[in-house]
């Protein structure tokens, strides 16, 4: 039982790093721009589909194809920021308005992928799919290991970008305090456009990675939407370290519930956990407590 | 601005009393002539008016945007269908029990959750609808899990039609009454500034919970009737986000926080989606809904009612 517990703990942590990759993008957009990106999960699933298309068409492994895929996703993010978010920001509309606009984007992406790829379950079967390492009697999925490493590398790159470059520092400054950073001469529009592009690119890359781990269909986005929102809210809106911590908590709790109860109860337990945490800390684990 | 849009709604309802009565009479005798298809379209329209008006009560008046409105409908649908399957009781009677359950759920979860603001409330309601979906999947002894509950269909559409019509009329009437009452003013004061309302002696907690429970009753009732009408319910259909989304779009299209807005929104959206799915079958009409949604928020945040009320749209969501 100990080996099994350890095995699912490790599995949960690996999953956590992939969650973290997706949640950080969602939260960067919230912190920097006060945009509740309802469609983030749809970009994830769109990433899965495009990776699938490249795999079917050109036999490109998602491990490689996610890097070129990040470019169109970045551009898509830039366009959405320029044409949908910026006008709202200029009108000083509320956060919830952005949530509604992005819900429109969500419907459009979901319907388009339904029309193009139908509602069938899709899956990318890479050579390493379904195989695992055996360490001390524990079976650890190769796909999870490979992709959590890629996710960790991407997260590290984002971290370096945010801490070591001027643009990155500007993003963090805007995340902390929009008005003050504007007063310090940060070009808000430029920074937020960059943030949005990066976040969508991360979502697309994460989706590409995920295409070999889970079968997906257009409404799969609902599953991710629920989880990612809960992770971001659990960690605290606007707190990137909070999102990473919450992502690991989420991954581990899911793995343990699956082991000790059953996989069907993970949603009930994790979503209830989020609601309970919010009741004790209305701003999430590491967020500002005045919502 | 918004006040004027509301006044417009109440003025129309008061001055055009006879026209409205005539409309209701026409709707009441329609089943004698109309085809089953027309009844089906109207029935869905009444369902959506009920959902949109009840969403409007919480979001339009108090500003708490509920992204899990379908939860109440799903609770109602399951309550009625389980009672029918296990005890043979007709949903025409037990749907009220579904409404009651939905309201009780709203009170129990509303007490803690309504302390959360803005996106936190919206997301926690979204999570709640996911929790209920998962419960409906997992408690398969009660709900038959993913296979769903099938019940013997009722032979005629007519009773469903009348029931939905009554629910829609009640929902509009309730919003009309509430918008003209002290309670309604209290709700609006919460939307405009909750702290100030609280300090001026509005019992904000009580008001919010009452509004929340009120917005849960009718979805619970129509949920049961809708489930019986479809004679089949599974977790995905019962808790489908598209019901929530349609309620929100209808309110925003017509103008949330107004009496007539959701009806106008429902008329336009329903006829448009029927028309487009007639022209191009399949899921294409959803693209239109999405595009319309984005266009509205960008260019007409106060909905159609704001066009009549004044020069600029009044953004109900501007305060949060």
Protein model, in words:
The complex is a heterodimer of chains A (291) and B (320). Chain A has 11 helices and 2 strands; from the N terminus they run H-H-H-H-E-E-H-H-H-H-H-H-H. With 291 residues, chain A is mostly helical. Chain A has one domain (17-224). In chain A, strands 1-2 form a two-stranded antiparallel sheet. In chain A, strand 1 and strand 2 form a beta hairpin. Chain A is globular and about 60 Å long. The mean pLDDT of chain A is 84. Chain B is mostly helical and 320 residues long. Chain B has one domain (2-319): ABC transporter involved in vitamin B12 uptake, BtuC (Orthogonal Bundle). Chain B is built from 16 helices and 2 strands. Chain B has helices at 2-15, 17-29, 36-62, 70-87, 91-113, 118-138, 140-143, 158-179, 182-192, 194-199, 204-230, 235-238, 241-254, 261-279, 284-299, 305-309, and strands at 149-150, 232-233. Chain B has a two-stranded antiparallel sheet. In chain B, helix 3 (36-62) packs across helix 9 (182-192). The two termini of chain B are 18 Å apart. The A-B interface holds A 36, 84, 87-88, 91-97, 99-101, 103-108, 110-112, 114-115, 222, 225-226, 229-230, 233, 237, 264-265, 267-268, 271-272, 274-275, 278-279, 282-283, 291 and B 65, 112-113, 115-120, 122-124, 126-128, 130-131, 133-135, 137-138, 241, 245, 248, 252, 282-284, 286-287, 289-294, 297-298, 301, 315, 317-320.
């Amino acid at each position: 039982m100990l080996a099994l517990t350890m095995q699912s703990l490790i599995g949960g942590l690996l999953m956590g790093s992939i969650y973290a990759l997706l949640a950080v993008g969602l939260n960067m957009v919230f912190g920097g721009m006060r945009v509740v990106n309802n469609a983030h999960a749809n970009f994830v699933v769109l990433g899965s589909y495009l990776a699938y298309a490249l795999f079917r068409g050109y036999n490109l492994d998602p491990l490689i194809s996610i890097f070129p895929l990040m470019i169109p996703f970045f551009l898509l993010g830039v366009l959405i920021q320029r044409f949908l978010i910026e006008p709202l920001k200029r009108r000083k509309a509320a956060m919830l308005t952005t949530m509604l606009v992005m819900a429109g984007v969500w419907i459009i992406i979901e319907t388009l992928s339904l029309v193009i790829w139908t509602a069938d379950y899709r899956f990318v079967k890479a050579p390493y799919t379904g195989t695992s390492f055996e360490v001390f009697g524990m079976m650890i999925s190769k796909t999870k290991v490979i992709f959590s490493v890629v996710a960790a590398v991407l997260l590290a790159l984002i971290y370096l970008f945010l801490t070591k470059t001027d643009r990155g520092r500007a993003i963090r400054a805007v995340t902390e305090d929009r008005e003050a950073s504007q007063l310090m001469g940060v070009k808000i529009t430029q920074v937020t456009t960059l943030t949005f592009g990066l976040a969508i690119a991360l979502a697309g890359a994460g989706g590409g990675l995920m295409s070999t781990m889970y079968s997906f269909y257009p409404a799969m986005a609902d599953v991710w939407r629920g989880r990612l929102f809960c992770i971001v809210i659990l960690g605290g809106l606007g707190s990137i370290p909070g999102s990473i911590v919450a992502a690991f908590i989420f991954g581990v709790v899911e793995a343990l519930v699956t082991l000790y109860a059953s996989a069907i109860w993970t949603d009930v337990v994790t979503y209830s956990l989020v609601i309970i945490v919010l009741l004790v800390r209305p701003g999430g684990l590491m967020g500002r407590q005045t919502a | 601005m918004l006040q004027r849009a509301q006044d417009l709604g109440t003025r129309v309802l008061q001055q055009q009393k006879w026209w409205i009565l005539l409309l209701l009479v026409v709707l009441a005798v329609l089943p004698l002539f109309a085809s089953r298809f027309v009844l089906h379209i109207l029935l869905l329209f009444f369902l959506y008016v009920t959902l949109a008006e009840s969403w409007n009560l919480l979001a339009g008046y108090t500003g708490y945007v509920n992204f899990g409105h379908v939860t109440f409908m799903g609770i109602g649908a399951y309550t009625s269908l389980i009672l029918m399957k296990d005890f043979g009781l007709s949903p025409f009677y037990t749907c009220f029990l579904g409404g009651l359950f939905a309201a009780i759920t709203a009170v129990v979860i509303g007490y803690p959750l309504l302390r959360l603001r803005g996106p936190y409330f919206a997301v926690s309601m979204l999570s709640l609808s996911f929790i209920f979906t998962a419960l409906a999947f997992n408690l398969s002894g009660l709900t038959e899990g993913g296979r769903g509950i099938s019940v013997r269909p009722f032979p005629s559409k007519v009773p469903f039609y009348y029931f939905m019509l009554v629910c829609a009329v009640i929902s509009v009437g309730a919003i009309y009454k509430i918008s003209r009452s002290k309670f309604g003013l209290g709700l609006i004061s919460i939307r405009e500034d909750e702290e100030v309302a609280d300090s001026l002696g509005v019992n904000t907690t009580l008001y919010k919970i009452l509004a929340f429970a009120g917005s849960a009753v009718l979805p619970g009732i129509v949920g049961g009737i809708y489930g019986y009408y479809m004679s089949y319910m599974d977790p995905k259909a019962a808790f489908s986000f598209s019901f929530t989304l349609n309620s929100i779009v209808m309110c925003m299209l017509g103008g949330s926080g107004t009496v007539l807005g959701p009806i106008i929104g429902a008329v336009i959206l329903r006829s448009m989606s029927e028309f487009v799915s007639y022209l191009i079958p399949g899921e294409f009409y959803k693209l239109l809904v999405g595009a319309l949604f984005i266009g509205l928020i960008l260019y007409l945040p106060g909905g159609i009612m704001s066009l009549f009320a004044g020069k600029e749209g009044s953004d109900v969501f501007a305060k949060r």
